[in-house]
């Protein structure tokens, strides 16, 4: 019997709802992720932003400490890991927050962010 390596090497997602999805990233456990976030803040952020960021990370991890729903846990860890990866790169310095994420923020999260955010349009000085 003849073996066709071309046919053996092809992958198919026939019948899948989302064909050719990227491979899922390995999630860090909560404590190493927490430490990674604080380390990234220490290395990449100015002092004032670091204090705000550290306070926010600590409060979010405390608030989600007793969550038992696996979907919420995976979503929480995924978003924080993506944030850590973004912060460790340099592309975030000129980036703007997506409108969808702003709309999803709770009142407490938004009030923590709002006093320290820069205005979108500055008023002309005379």
- Please state the average pLDDT score: 76
- N-to-C SSE series? HHHHHH
What's the alpha carbon Rg, rounded to whole Å?
A: 21 Å
> Spans of 5+ residues with little confidence (pLDDT < 50)?
119-126
- The tally of strands reads 0
- Helix percent reads 40-55%
Q: What is the helix tally?
A: 6
Most strands sheet: none
Q: What is the end-to-end distance?
A: 85 Å
Structural class: mainly alpha
Q: Oligomerization state of this entry?
A: single chain
Strand content: under 5%
Name the shape in a single word: globular
Description of the structure:
It comes from Zopfia rhizophila CBS 207.26. This is Succinate dehydrogenase assembly factor 3. This protein has a domain at 70-96. It has six helices and no strands. It has helices at 5-9, 30-44, 47-63, 70-88, 99-104, 107-113. α2 (30-44) packs antiparallel against α3. 4% of the residues are buried.
Summarize the structure.
The chain is mostly helical. It is 55% helix and 0% strand. It contains six helices and no strands.
List the helices and strands and how they pair.
Elements: H1 5-9, H2 30-44, H3 47-63, H4 70-88, H5 99-104, H6 107-113
Helix pairs in contact: 2-3, 2-4
């Amino acid at each position: 019997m003849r073996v066709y390596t071309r046919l053996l090497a092809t992958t198919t997602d026939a019948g899948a709802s989302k064909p050719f999805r990227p491979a899922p990233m390995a999630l860090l456990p909560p404590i190493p992720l927490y430490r990674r976030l604080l380390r990234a803040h220490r290395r990449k952020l100015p002092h004032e932003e670091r204090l705000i960021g550290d306070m926010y990370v600590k409060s979010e991890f405390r608030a989600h400490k007793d969550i038992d729903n696996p979907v919420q846990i995976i979503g929480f860890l995924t978003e924080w890991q993506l944030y850590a990866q973004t912060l460790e790169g340099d592309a975030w310095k000129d980036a703007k927050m997506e409108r969808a994420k702003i709309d999803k923020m709770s009142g407490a999260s938004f009030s923590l962010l709002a006093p320290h955010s820069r205005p979108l349009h500055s008023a002309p000085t005379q």
